[in-house]
Amino acid sequence: MSSRVRIKDQWNEQRIFSQRTLGALLVIAVLVVALLARLSYLQVLRHDYYMELSQGNRVRLDPIPASRGLIVDRNGIVLANNEPAYQLELIREQVPNLTDTLKRLVELRLIDPDELEDTRRVIFSRRSFDSVPVRLRLTDDEIGRFAVHRYEFPGVDLATRQTRHYPYGSLGVHALGYVSAISEQDLERIDRASYAGTTLIGKLGVESAFEPQLHGHNGFRQILVNAQGRSVQRQGAYAPVLHSQPPTPGEDLILSIDLTAQKAAEDGLGDHRGAVVAIDPRNGDVLALASKPGFDPAEFARGISRSEYAELSDSIDKPLLNRALRGTYPSGSTIKPVIALAALTYHLVDPNKLEFCAGVFHLPGSSLLFREGKTGRHGCLDLTHAIAKSCDVYFYGLAATVGAERIAAFMAPFGYGELTGIDISGEKPGLLPSPEWKKKTFKRPQDQVWFPGETVNFGVGQGYLLVTPLQLAHVASVLAERGKSFRPRLVTAVRDVGGQLEPIAPIANPAIQGVTSADWDLVINGMVGAATYGTAAAISKGSSYAIAGKTGTAQVFTVSRSERLTQKVAERLKDHAWFIAFAPVEAPRIAVAVLVENGGFGASAAAPIARKVMDAYLLRQNTAAETATPESEAAD
Amino acid sequence: MEDTGYARTRRTLFSSARLLSVLNLDGPLLVGLALLAIYGLAILYSASGQSIDTVVRTVMRLALGTAAMLALTHASPNFLRRIAPWLYLFGIALLVVVEVTGVIGKGAQRWLNLGLFKFQPSEIMKLAVPMLAAWYLHDRPLPPDWKSLAVLAVIIFLPAGLVAVQPDLGTAALIAASGALLVLMAGLSMRIVLALLLAAAAAAVLGWNFLHDYQRARVLTFLNPQTDPLGAGYHIIQSQIALGSGGLFGKGWMNGSQAQLEFLPERSTDFIFAVVGEEFGLIGLIGLLALYLFIVARSVWLATQTNDTFSRLLALCLALTFFVYVFINAGMVSGLLPVVGVPLPLVSYGGTSVVTLLAGFGILMGLYSHRKLVGT
Predict the structure, then answer these.
(1) Which residues 6+ apart lie within 8 Å of B69 measured at CB?
(2) Could B309 and A13 be called an inter-chain contact, meaning their C-beta atoms sit closer than 8 Å?
């Protein structure tokens, strides 16, 4: 269509111009429609979505941690409270180079090199803008060291947080438990939002069992942040309404623990390994729950280092083991009152009939000889005296007569082999053996047979039977209340923020059925005998109230005798000493079980401790507050 | 009373019309520009974080632009035609100077520091390129033949190339666009347009290798902003949040959290469109676009009223280029187009573009008022 010679054609140009102008206007229209469609999509259809994003952009929640509830003993003495402490916190997104920063903190001895990996993991398990504590409870020295180098650490800062304080140090630690930094496992089970801003969480004891009550509800404050993530009050004329919600402090716990009795128990154990549990038989209140050796819960709240923890967990004395709940031992002769009750209830014994103890028991139809323990030969005894003098021969015979099945069936309601249901976790059930149990437990047929000899051993609390100190304190309380008992408890009431007490009602166990009052009298008389003229006669010396008790000696399974043993190991092969007791006999207010590991004979090692605890509780109950001094005050 | 009031209004209108005519100004276009400037200042006050300083400086630039506009309305098409080659050469020379000794700003060599203010030579080319192209075409038969197209290509791509290497891809694209629009209006065959588009697509693939890293990043993040939400995709994501959260009616003047808390980057310059969307909502944006469209439509109408080739091509090109500016900026902010540094005309803060744009409207009004009236 192109011609070789072209001249300007005004009319053609005018036409082209008009066409192109129209075309341009059309294109403009199409583009404007496209733009409006896009804007409508963003601003109308997806408005809610973008509104949320913009809200997330500008408002951040600043958590306000709730202060943790106090823990007080039954007399109102504070056992755990909160005090301010400095800690080092790190906000990941504000740290330019995390590896370098952590390395420098280690160099400044603010983070333990062993903890480096754990710290890093915890940092990455939180959101990048969360302030994560990397070191708790700085000392004044450490605060100073950090302050000097502060400018080198963008994103790391000192923060004041409330931390847990235990005025009496390690006293009662196995009942109280402790608080420690929230671990990764904790994060999986807690509601992260309600713990934002909280650094410590209860571990073990009532601190853990009553964590929801103690923790309370964290509050929050909405804060305005700009694009750099900095908190701003307002930006120019822009000042939106921000919400906040104050925290609800945690509730206080009123424990059943009597600090004086607790202190008596722990002082009584002294440097021995062992446990003491004292229960008020009338309601299941745990008056004292001690396990030795203990540890200082402050170490955990402060942030325990790996080596410190290793020292605790690797120690041969196992200070972290709560022996009261988790230590299982043969019951030894403390079982005898129950065996006696079983025999009486099944009418298989004449309590007044005298049996002759020559120091050896022949199992009928067997060539086996069962020897008397340490007490030698007793001569003629009736049932009451057999309990008081803890005559093994008498009870070998009794057990053989009653039989293992019936013994096990009778013992079960006392709580042997079962959890007592105490309100803190970690308890072990021990073991109540029976022929049926043996059949179920062992695989090889020859192991499944229950031998008559095992029944005989059962009668004196040896063999497979395993009990915890808590269980035996519970048994003592059953004996004290003649069959009635309550589930042991450490927390008797919760006090809310307003000071309103909310008592927790004691939970009664089913009473022991079928035991006559006369039979209870007989057995309790035997126990009173033990505490007055029997194996533990010394315990009643100078006592203004009547005590019923029973000693026990749990054999430690021995390694080969032929080996020469070091002093240390030999000490650990000594028998465990038991003592259970309750008082005053006519109206019992306290039932105690004492275990001293490798303490030897129950009467000498364990019984005096029980007496101290009972004295502390029964005689000085009204002046309890004066006897114990908080550690911190004592140190000043 | 009513009679006198009416008379007074009549008198006022008449006298202002006469004044406008003396000044060679077009009333409706002037009103449109004035409204846009006022709207723009209100937004800028909010977007700059309530900076009076920014507003004052913009008013000064507007005044400078208005002065340029008033001066250029008196320029006849003949005068403009005569100075077009010289302006073009002057602009090219400045670009070369900038390239050699330019002051480094924002990592790119774009400014020439004249002591009093920093001057962007590329702004001259926004006017000089369409002027020279119109000058070249005005006495040649339309549609342009192959030889003319080759010359036009040189006229357009020489300055565009110089600006692109500064590197200022946005302005280079705008310069190229204004030249291309003019050639298109001159009747370029649609087949060639199609062929050129295909060629451009091919060139884009090849050109990828010559792009700077940040330019590549812009293209990539335009295609998928979520790949780099805190880096290159941040602009796009934040501007869409600003627009979307504004909704239909907006969060209110000075109440846009995205803008006020600086989540929106370049809030008072390239991304000011998002501030309008956040604080005044879709309604506010429609109002803004209506003003722009009115200005474009009036400009196009003025262009159609001129009757020589030079005036028609130049006026129409200026009108359409103005729309292209608006669309590229709005498209980039709303995520329709990749992020290129193109300001929203007459509203974005900074640069010499306000002066150039108003000068362009001055030229447009001058061309209109110097038209040869039919029948005389």
Answers:
(1) B358, B359, B361, B362, B365
(2) yes
Higher pLDDT, B78 or A628: B78
Considering CB atoms only, which of B244, B296, B334 is closest to A47? B244
Q: What is the DSSP letter of A94?
A: G
Contact with chain B for residue A236, Cβ under 8 A? yes
Q: Total domain count for chain B? A: 1
B3 falls within a domain? no
**pLDDT at A65 exceeding the cut of 90:** no
Q: How many residues comprise chain B?
A: 376
Q: How many CB atoms lie within 10 A of CB A389?
A: 21
Do the domain assignments include residue B129?
yes
Task: Calculate the alpha carbon distances from A336 to A386, A526, A574, A630, B371 in Å.
Answer: 9, 10, 21, 41, 127
Interchain CB contact of B247 with A (< 8 Å): yes
Residue pair A381/A396 in contact by the 8 Å Cβ criterion? no
CA distance B245 to chain A (A): 4
Average pLDDT over chain B reads 86
List, for residues A321-331, the tens digit of each pLDDT value: 899 999 899 99
Contact between residue B315 and residue A61 where contact means Cβ atoms under 8 Å apart: no
Q: Can you tell me the ipTM of this complex?
A: 0.90
Both tokens assigned to A280: 């008020």
Residue B281: which of B258, B254, B257, B251 has the closest Cα?
B251
Residue B6: what are its φ and ψ, rounded to 5°?
A: -60, -45
| pLDDT confidence band for B271 (50 / 70 / 90) | very high
Is there a domain that residue B347 lies in?
yes
How wide is the angle at C-alpha B7 spanned by C-alphas B2 and B12, nearest 5°? 130
Q: Model's pTM, two decimal places?
A: 0.64
Residue B233 resides in a domain: yes
Which chain A residues in 26-85 lie under 8 Å from chain B, judged by CB atoms?
28, 31-32, 34-36, 38-40, 42-44, 46-47, 49-51, 53-55, 57-58
Please tell me which residue, B95 or B375, carries the higher pLDDT value: B95
d(CA A12, CA A6): 12
A125 is catalytic: no
Q: For residue A269, which of A624, A511, A594 has the smallest C-alpha distance?
A: A594
